[in-house]
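Two records follow; treat each independently.
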Amino acid sequence: NVKKSWRKVHSVTGVVPRSRHGHRAAAIRELIIVFGGGNEGIAEDLHVYNTVSKQWFLPAVRGDIPPGCAAHGFVCEGTRILVFGGMVEYGKYTNSLYELQASRWLWKKLKPRAPRNGSLPCPRIGHSFTLAGGKCYLFGGLANDSEDPNGNVPRYLGDFYELELQPLTGARGWNVPDTKGGGPSARESHTCVAYASLGSPKLYVFGGMQGCRLNDLCPASEFKTCQPGFPGAPAAVKISKVTQQHLLSVATVPLTIYLHNLTFQE
């Protein structure tokens, strides 16, 4: 086994981002792209780190440049990045969807159609936004039901959406998949990762916050079958719980975690 070790990156030059939390990052080839987050205000700039030259830089972005946001959804497919939701200022959340074409540093605001069987996702923070098989899956998060922009009436979300992407650029529309089984409870600041080995791909939701911190693990298995009768019907999704007993047969159950990350590695 190769021993894993941490090493601090030194000799970094360029426009170094200020300290922050609630930001997101993705890797495209040798570049690490960082967007959003907050620390005495929401960060608006798009920062890029070149892992070869060890240099930070601010690309000359153009197009429909989004406002800075924190605790947003952030996925990468090829050379495009999709950003959904997040906090744009204190108490004000958004449900906007933006696409960044990193090959041209071009932002575009997307307006996918609403689900045939429901409404558009509401503004939120702390949700998961996961890419699997040319679609993005949105789960949970935290909404603010206060009519006063300076107030905060939190509402934990347990809704589940599927966003169908167009090849290379754009998004067709949202769907509300037909789910079965006992799904995860409403939560925010959880993680969700996609994993495909043998059989259908699975989404694994772990942890998060719902007034208290959670340490359960829920896999969502996607069936590749559609409702007959009309094209583009949402796929059926089976959601089932992994019991603590099953977890103990694999590894020690982790302590309850908040604001964590979870990654699959082959």
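The next record belongs to a different protein.
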Amino acid sequence: MAWTSEENKLFERALARYDEDTSDRWEKIAAMVGGGKTVEQIRRHYNELVQDVEQIESGNVRYTNSNRRNGTTN
């Protein structure tokens, strides 16, 4: 199931609100995101985000002119 821009905004806000020490963190994030997202989908989305950040920070993401023309950055 694809994530909308609004769901991604809510996800980011929820991550800022519920840190790693929050009990039932993933359940609370799923509730805040809404849209029927399950805890498993929330965790998977988080892990994908972490991998993306690691790729960017390691310099493994290259930008090309075609990315810029198409409005994409990855």
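Discussion point: The chain has a mean pLDDT of 88. How would you locate this feature using only the token line?
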